[in-house]
Amino acid sequence: MKMTKEYRIKLKLANSCSQLCLVVVLVVLASLTIPADCFHHDDHYPEAIAALFVFGDSLIDPGNNNYINTSTGFQANFPPYGESFFKYPSGRFCDGRVITDFIAEYAKLPFIPPYLQIGYQYQLAYGANFASAGAGALVETYPGSVVDLKTQLWHFNEAEKLLISNIGRRGAERIVSNSVYLFSIGANDYFSDSRKSNIFKSFTPEDYVAMVVGNITAALEEIYKKGGRKFGVVNMPPLGCAPVYRAADLAAGGTGECNGQMTALAKLHNVLLSKGLEHLQKQLKSFRYSYFDFFAVFVDLFDNPSKYGFKEVKSACCGSGPFRGTNSCGGRWGIKEYELCGNPQDYSFFDSVHPTQAANQQFAELIWAGPSNVTGPYNLKSLFQLSL
User: Fold this and answer.
1) What is the number of structural domains in the chain?
2) Residues 73 and 15 in one domain
3) For 95-107, how does the pLDDT look when each residue is reduced to its tens digit (9 = 90+)?
4) Residue 58: active-site member
5) Does the annotation count 354 as an active-site position?
6) Is the pTM value of this prediction over 0.90?
């Protein structure tokens, strides 16, 4: 068949269109695969990422205990937890967000979900949260029911291996060295159940606290050896002033004051922890840290509640009994009847031990950019910005 001039032009245009479409398709496909390829080639990996890795207990647990075999006493995956923000119980021991949720926001990071959440182990470029409600610095604290600090460190080691597998060794090293490692742990080692344990009775209070603090500083050293350089550490608040202990004092014939033994342990812990961090800074090159004086902030909050925007700082929003100090929020421990306030933003405590979202935001702001008398020698914002 003889081709007309007009037909040849149409055919040429059609071929050009097909080639152009093919190019467009290839470009689109390439754009979809470039990020993944970059994550597998060290030379292309972005150097500016400052991730957040979190170790701790229920103060900063985003719901890891949802994924372990434990009792409801160590979980918060039921109402009314989560009501002020998520509108469902996320596993956080709070009416909404915990401190690290706000820290991630200030650092312009996405929410750092529970490390044990299925599938999250492969999304580690922004960090991971290993914290577990009930966890202590000692493996003997609630064994078998929580993810203790030693096991949290094991999870970090596994996360590091996954990073190396996903993005290569050089990319993983960049993340590890530039990340901030936040620790808030130790309170559960001092709570009444722990103080009844044989290990507590085997030591003087001073030696016991030294052992708790020693495990925390040893964890910092372990991460330092892997390349971590920037650490945030939260000290103990006045533990004996939580609603649960005010209620216990009242039940024992007192007037609802703070538990002196608990507060004394917290003070000793803070003295040893501060000295331990100073020692690490002297011994370890480029070791930098932010030490948040949670104790001083809480004392100021108790003395000046309106300064922080609170109307009630002694009683919990959720619970039962005097000060709502019975840990029955949401029906915990099989206690079905409990009281729930209608204005958690006015309370510093949500349940008998844990802060409200409103309090957590106040604490996070101070950890992030607080003055040197509250958080030092660096605040967390300066650590995120610091390049070593």
Assistant:
1) 2
2) no
3) 999 999 999 999 9
4) yes
5) yes
6) no
